[in-house]
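User: Predict the structure for this protein chain, please.
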Amino acid sequence: MLFSGRYFMNDYNKKKNDRYGAQSRGSSRQRRGQYTDSSPRRYDGKKSFDKDEEYSRDRDFGRRYDEEAPEDKGLIIGRNPVIEALKADKPIDTLFVNAEAGGSIGMISRMARDRGIVIKQVSDQKLTAMSQGASHQGCIAVGACAEYVSVEDILNISKQKSTEPFIIICDEIEDPHNLGAIIRTAEAAGADGVIIPKRRSASLNFTVNKTSAGAASWVPVARVPNLGAAIDELKENGVWIYGTDASGESYTEVSMTGAVGLVIGSEGFGMGRLIREKCDYLLSLPMNGKITSLNASVAAGIFMYEAVRQRNTVKK
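Assistant: Here is the predicted structure, written as structure tokens:
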């Protein structure tokens, strides 16, 4: 004889109700929170905080950690605010525009281009997401946490200190957390400055400043359109270029007591071919485990402090 699944389920429920009766039903109501006192309760049974207070606290928690307000990210939203920021020469890292918006967008783009600010063409949906629904009018500027300097400015720092140049060169480090960590270590190690490319690289935005623990306000950063040309300029000023590559010599076996330009390759790809060819030395770290690479900022810290160790030894 064949029986349907419904028959067995109904029979099971009937027996369950006969066996447990009201106790089962009562406990289920308790599990659903149907108490006589409807106030929210904590795990110890005591009354919790006011519902509105709890909601406000949870909402603030989300704001702090999940969705920072646009102003907390250093965003300047809307045409007039962006125009006034450009006129006032405020530090601006990147300008995001929707070219289809028309009107004064062309004038804003020209003003930004004259100041050497990176301009990115994006969709209206992208701008809306960045502004979290605020009226952006087709443009948003991202404020920089510090002014950029030139390669010459960084070279002049070592001349003022009467020391050999110690410069960090970031070859397309795109993660702002990595760039912030590198800048933080560079400041602690006494580097004269950091050089980054204008394209395909993280920049001095507020995430970098936060990750660097404020070091981005102290370490001069040069943003260059051509990293290879910047390296050539360093070489013309007597700086030796040290690349970081798995095929290089052990980092402790190469002298870094003179003028040092240390190149840190990008996450996952390392140095580009043209940059690698411009290096005078290649340095490597011993990798004795199953993982064959380190985080870019971690590796940068090891190389920087080896240079510090050697330079301090020479001073003694």
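Residues 151-315 form a domain with the Alpha/beta knot fold (CATH 3.40.1280.10).
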